[in-house]
Design a protein that fits this description.
This protein is mainly alpha-helical and about 90 residues long. Helices cover about 45% and strands about 5% of the residues. This is Zinc ribbon domain-containing protein.
């Protein structure tokens, strides 16, 4: 009886943690496992985790793809990006 209650709570917290992680732009599977293994703590960590959608971005000078401001290489074309404080107008 006690084991089935723990499994139910672990799955419930895993689903809740996965939903929160997904809304913040992270892996659903990873957050589900974190929430199921450490139910209460995992949920709190997911709520405190940063939101990738709010990260400043900039365009790649070669292909034009939007890259994170802190990226050193463009994930689209592999172009080496210089550090700049210029932020894309789409993220403001």
């Amino acid at each position: 009886m006690g084991g089935s209650i723990y499994i139910f709570l672990a799955v419930a917290f895993g689903i809740a943690t996965a939903v929160i992680g997904r809304t913040k732009g992270s892996s659903v599977t990873l957050w589900f496992m974190i929430g199921a293994i450490v139910p209460g703590i995992g949920l709190l960590v997911a709520m405190a985790y940063r939101n990738d959608g709010e990260e400043p971005r900039r365009p790649c000078p070669r292909c034009g793809r939007e890259c994170m401001l802190h990226d050193a290489l463009c994930v689209g074309c592999g172009n080496e990006l210089d550090y700049t404080t210029e932020v894309s107008a789409a993220t403001r």
